[in-house]
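Problem 12. The chain below contains 88 residues. Write out its predicted structure in token notation.
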Amino acid sequence: MFRIWAKIFKDNHMLADTVICNDTDDTRTHKVFHALHDICVQFDLGEPIWLDSNIQDFKKHAKTRFRQDSFIEHIDFDYLEIHVIEED
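Solution.
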């Protein structure tokens, strides 16, 4: 099982969260991209752009934060955080 926990924060308060599960045989990268897509659909957001800093953080910690500079449209929260909480 592969699970990602997504949280939306504003002013150090969690506004919303969800856990996306994936038990397909896809690669880890595909599972992350599919989970991010599902998260954005569930939170009604445009998909963020992976900046170099996001990629570095995700590689090191299996966790990253998408701030305003990763989104094309304006967001009314401080950041979207995704964190891998379980891997096969």
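Discussion. The chain has a mean pLDDT of 97. Students who got a different answer should revisit the alignment rule from Section 12.3.
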